[in-house]
Design a protein that fits this description.
Strand order of the largest sheet: 3-2-6-9-10-5-4
Number of helices: 4
Distance between the termini: 28 Å
Number of domains: 1
Order of helices and strands: HEEEEEHEHHEEEEEE
Oligomer: single chain
Length: about 160
């Protein structure tokens, strides 16, 4: 073995799960941000965690509202998901810019991409500084799924998004 960087290691461990973090903006609209790391923490009680850059606008919305929905995006919106990961929602309406059709989630003002395989409705429990990111620990309130949607994964580090086949 030879010494490599952590970003190089991410290429060697591909594919990695991709998630779209859905938050509510102050005007009531939905913001979408692509996150490349999340995990299940507990099934009793149901908890998940994900990491976002400290500068993330979506992270700011989660810290303010304490509500978030993580979705596993479907293959049909791969290009939009990639775009959402490279654009800030602070001054951009990503839903319009990338043509993402949204769906309502029962009991939540936050909408999700119509083409989602899984939607995990959460309440922020706590967050912690972890280097240049925050680690968000969330209590899961509801989970929805659609087996007809094909989940996206990050390949080649995070350079490509596509299903596992």
């Amino acid at each position: 073995m030879k010494k490599i960087t952590l970003p190089q290691a991410s290429k060697l461990t591909s594919p990695n799960p991709v998630t779209v973090v859905c938050t509510q903006k102050p005007d009531g609209s939905t913001n979408l941000a692509t996150v490349s790391w999340w995990t299940y923490l507990s099934y009793k009680p149901n908890m998940i965690a994900y990491a976002m850059a400290k500068t993330s606008y979506s992270g700011e919305m989660v810290r303010n509202n304490k509500k978030v929905i993580l979705t596993v995006p479907g293959a049909e919106i791969a290009d939009a998901v990639l775009g959402c990961g490279s654009t800030s929602g602070r001054n951009t309406d990503k839903v319009s810019k990338f043509g993402v059709e949204l769906a309502e989630v029962e009991g939540s003002p936050i909408k999700i991409p119509l083409h989602s395989r899984v939607a995990i409705v959460c309440r922020l429990k706590e967050y912690h500084e972890v280097g240049d990111h925050y680690l968000y620990i969330c209590d899961v309130e509801q989970v929805y799924g659609d087996e007809s949607e094909e989940a996206l994964f990050a390949w080649n580090g995070y350079a490509q998004l596509r299903p596992v086949k």
